[in-house]
Amino acid sequence: MDYYMLPKNGSCSDYDFLLKQVHLKSAKRLLETCLLNGGLYIKMGQGVAAINHILPKEYTNTLEKLQDKCLPTTKTDIQRVFYEDFGSTPEEIYSDFDYTPIAAASLAQVFKAKLKTGEDVAVKVQYGDLQRRFTSDLGTIMFLQDVIEIFFKNYNFGWILRDLRKNLTLELNFENEGQNAERCAKDLKIFEYVHVPHIYWTYTKPRILTMEWVNGFKVNDVERIQCENLDLKDVDLKLFNMFAEQIFHTGFVHADPHPGNVYVRKNPKTGKADLVLLDHGLYEYLPESVRKPLCEFWEAAVLRDEQKMKLAARQIGIKDHMKFAEVLFQQPIRIHGGRIKTKLSESDIEYIQQVATKNFELIMGTLKEMPRNMLFVVRQPLW
C-alpha cells in the first residue's frame, strides 16, 4: 500500500524523499519477517542485501543486519544431522570435534575437528531442518512476491528471487560445493599465491562438508595485513588478478566474494601474501559469448571509447551502455575527461545514490537485460 500511495510519475517536489521513506519502511518490514522466520528467509534476505549495486540503499543497508544472523543449534542437533547422513556421531568419525562453532551463517555452521589420521579440518554442517522447510518456505516467499507484483509492477524483485531460488537449491548440496572448490583450485593453479582448501570426500555428504583447516584473516583486515608486514598493493593486485582470471578467462566465477570468503595468510617461504578462497557454494558460469564482449566493454569504458562501449553492450544485450557502466563500476562515468576511480569521493557517492533513486526503474530494466549469470558476477572486487 505504501508504494501505491506514492504520487504518480514523481509528480511531487518531495517525491524522492517520500520514495526513500517508503523503501526504508518496507525494508524494515522485510528484515523483521526474515528474523522472525529464520533459515531460508535469512538467506534470501542476505541474497537481496548482497545485490547492493542494484537495489536502493534503504534495502541493502537495512538487510545487511542479516549477515551476522544464524539459527541457534545444540549438540543434539549436530549429532542428529551426522547420524542421519553418516549413521554415526562426530565422535565416531573424528578423533576430536569441537561443538563450539567457529563460524555461522544462514545455511550452516563451521566447526573445528581432527581426523583420526591427524589432520586438522573444518567441518561445515547444515542446519537440520533446512531441507525440510526449503520447499514450503520458498513457495511462501514467491507467492508473496507474485501478489506484490500484480499490484506494483514497477517495484518487484520476482526475477531476482527466482535467480536466488536456483542458486539456493545448489547451495544446499555441499557435495556440489566440494566439486566447485576442486574446479576452482584447478582453474587457479597458475597462481602460486592462491589456495583453495582440500576437500575430504570420505567425510563429506550433501549436508556435511569436511575440508582442510587453513589459518588466515579476512582480506579487508588492513590493520592485520600491515601488522604482518604485508604489502597492501600486493594483496590488492593478487585479488584483482584472481577474479579477473575467473571472469575473463575461465568463466567459472565465485559469486559470493565478500571479505569473509577471502582470507590472507603470510607465505613462510616468500614472506608475501597468499590468498585463501573459501565458501564455494555459489558459482556462475560465463560463456565466451558473454566474457568477450564484457572484456571489450570494460576496456572501452576505461579508455572512454563510447562507440566501442555501445557495440560491446549491444552484444551483451544491454541498450543503455552508460547506465550499465555506472552499475558495473559503481561510480559516475564521464566520457570526456576523468578516469575510473579506485576510491569514490563523497560527491560521487551522493551522485550514485541520487541516480539510483531517480532512475530506479531504468536501472532495474538494465539489470533485467543482462544475462542472468552476470547478476552476481558484477559484485566482484574487480569492479
From TrEMBL:
Keyword match Kinase: yes
GO molecular function: kinase activity
Keywords from the UniProt entry: Kinase, Transferase
Pfam families reported for this sequence: ABC1
Transmembrane regions listed in the UniProt entry: none
InterPro entries linked: ABC1_dom (IPR004147), ADCK1_dom (IPR045307), Kinase-like_dom_sf (IPR011009), Mito_struct-func_regulator (IPR051130)
Keyword Nucleotidyltransferase: no
Boundaries of every ABC1 atypical kinase-like domain copy: 65-310
Family label: Belongs to the protein kinase superfamily. ADCK protein kinase family.
Protein name: Putative aarF domain-containing protein kinase 5
Species for this entry: Bactrocera latifrons
Species classification: Eukaryota, Metazoa, Ecdysozoa, Arthropoda, Hexapoda
Gene of this entry: Adck5_3
